[in-house]
Amino acid sequence: MTDYAALVERYIATWNETDAETRAKAVAGLWTEDGSYTDPLADVRGHDAIGAVIGAVHERFPGFVFTPGSLLDGHGRLVRFTWGLGPAGGEPLAEGFDVAELAEDGRIARVLGFLDKVPG
């Protein structure tokens, strides 16, 4: 049985990782080799591309952190959850909703992201 809360915790931690080498290892451990990430601003496949998207967020919003939102639900190989992005300890300036599809080995095969609130 999948521990969806633990998976989302690892996912959020990966998005919060600022060190490129540590982030690359986290992405490799969390996503399948051909895993994909798609949202309104990105559509990428593979570990390097996913790591680059995460790095670009850190460049655009230095010092901001991702936090889990109030929704977390899963069944089978699907999990959906909300998140926020903002200054540490502050109100999120961006909020979203992601759906992850897991591979049989429990790693992420695909993430579909939706942006519900974005900074101006």
Brief summary of the model shown:
This protein has 120 residues and is of the alpha+beta class.
Report on this model:
The chain is an alpha+beta fold and 120 residues long. The protein is 32% helix and 45% strand. It has one domain: Nuclear Transport Factor 2, Chain: A, CATH 3.10.450. The protein contains 3 helices and 6 strands; from the N terminus they run H-H-E-E-H-E-E-E-E. The protein has a 6-stranded mixed β-sheet with strand order 2-1-6-5-4-3. Helix 1 packs antiparallel against helix 2 and helix 2 packs across helix 3. The longest helix has 14 residues. It is globular, with a radius of gyration of 13 Å. The mean pLDDT is 96. Pfam families: SnoaL_2 (PF12680). This is SnoaL-like domain-containing protein. InterPro entries: NTF2-like_dom_sf (IPR032710), SnoaL-like (IPR037401).
Q: Provide the β-strand percentage band.
A: over 45%
Please tell me the CATH architecture by its name: Roll
Please give the share of residues in helix: 25-40%
Spatial strand sequence of the major β-sheet? 2-1-6-5-4-3
User: How widely separated are the two ends?
Assistant: 41 Å
Unreliable segments of 5+ consecutive residues: none
Could you tell me the number of beta strands? 6
CATH topology: Nuclear Transport Factor 2, Chain: A
Total helices: the number is: 3
Query: Structural class given helices, strands, pairing?
Result: alpha+beta
- Please state the overall shape, judged from the principal axes of the Cα atoms: globular
The top level CATH class name: Alpha Beta
User: Order of SSEs, N→C?
Assistant: HHEEHEEEE
The rounded Rg comes to: 13 Å
Largest sheet: 6 strands, mixed
What's the number of domains? Answer: 1
Mean pLDDT: 96
InterPro entries: NTF2-like_dom_sf, SnoaL-like
Protein name: SnoaL-like domain-containing protein
